[in-house]
Amino acid sequence: RPFKEIIEEVNALVEKGFQEIVLTGICLGSYGRDICKELNLSFLLGEILRFNGRFRIRLSSIEPSDVTDELIELIIKEDKLCKHLHIPFQSGDNIVLRRMNRSYTREFYLSLIEQVRNAISDIAITTDIMVGFPGETDEGFENTVGFLKAVQPSRTHIFPFSRREGTPAYNLSEQVSPPIVKDRERRLFERTNRFAYEYSKGFKDKQVEVLVEDKRDPSTGLLKGYTDRYIKVYLDGPDTIKGKLITCQITSAGLTPLDSKAYLTGLTNQKTYGILMP
C-alpha cells in the first residue's frame, strides 16, 4: 500500500479514538522494498509514532530475517510500540525446514531470539509451529521439542500439516500418519501451555496496560483484553471501559478462569481478575 495512504488511515483511526493499531500483511517485514530504497517498516513505524494521543502499535507476524537491528532499537525506545514479536518458525528441525523451502535454520532463529532478549529481557516472543510435515521423523519432531524448550515462547500457534492439492508439498513422500500428527500436536500443546503460564506469571503484582475488548467472557461475565505483550487478562469493570487502554494491577495468574464470584468480592474496577493463557 502507498505510504501516504497508510499514514492517512492511521491518523484517521487515532483521531476517532482507536487505541491499538495493528500493522499486518503477508511478508510484513519487507514492506517498502518494492516502492523505494529509503522506505521500510521501521521508517513507516517512525512516522506513525509521531502522532499524538494514547494508542499503541502492534506488529503482526514478521519473518525472522526481517527482525532488523533498527526494528529492535525502535521497540526498545518507543513506549507506544508493543513489546511483542510474532516470529513464525514452523519447525525446529533443519531437514524439515529445507523441505519446506525455508531460507533460515534453527541456529539462526535461536541466535536471533538471544539478540532480541538481550536487548529487551521481558519481550513476548510468539511463534507458529507446524507438526507432521512430510518427512518429519521422530528425531525431527524431538528437535522441534528441544527447540521450543530453548525458545520458551510466550504463546505458540500449533497446527497440523494439511495436504493442499496443487502445492509442492502435496506430492512429497514420507507423509506422516494422522494418529502420529495428532499425538505430536498434543505433546507440543502440553509443553507450550506451560511456557505460556510461566511467562505470564512473571507479571503478577505488576501494573500493565490492557486494551479492553468489546465483548465480555460468557463463562464469567468479566471483561477481557490484552496487554502489549499479548497476555490475555480478565478484569472487573463497567462497559464504559470497552475499547480503551486501562492501567491494571495483575492480581493472579492461571491457565483457566478462577471462581469469579468468590474472587471479585471487594475488587475495584481498576484491578485485574487474573490472566488466562489458553
Sketch the major β-sheet.
5 strands, antiparallel
Total DSSP E strands: 10
Which percent bin holds the helix content?
25-40%
Low-confidence stretches: 258-273
Beta-strand percent range: 15-25%
List the secondary-structure elements in sequence, H or E: HEHEHEHHEHEHEEEEHE
Distance between the termini: 34 Å
Query: What oligomerization state is this entry in?
Result: single chain
- Secondary-structure-derived class: alpha/beta
- Give the overall shape, derived from the CA principal axes: globular
Number of helices: 8
Strand order of the largest sheet: 9-6-7-8-10
Mean pLDDT: 89
Query: What is the alpha-carbon Rg in Å?
Result: 20 Å
Walkthrough of the structure:
The chain has helices at 3-15, 41-48, 69-77, 94-99, 106-119, 138-151, 178-201, 260-263; strands spanning 20-23, 56-59, 84-86, 124-131, 155-160, 207-212, 223-227, 232-235, 245-249, 272-275. It is α/β, with parallel strands linked by helices. The longest helix is centred in the C-terminal third of the chain and has 24 residues, at 178-201. The protein is globular.
In short:
The chain has 278 residues and is of the alpha/beta class.
Itemize the secondary structure elements and their pairings.
Layout: H1 3-15, E1 20-23, H2 41-48, E2 56-59, H3 69-77, E3 84-86, H4 94-99, H5 106-119, E4 124-131, H6 138-151, E5 155-160, H7 178-201, E6 207-212, E7 223-227, E8 232-235, E9 245-249, H8 260-263, E10 272-275
Parallel strand pairs: 1-2, 3-4, 4-5
Antiparallel strand pairs: 6-7, 6-9, 7-8, 8-10
Helix pairs in contact: 6-7
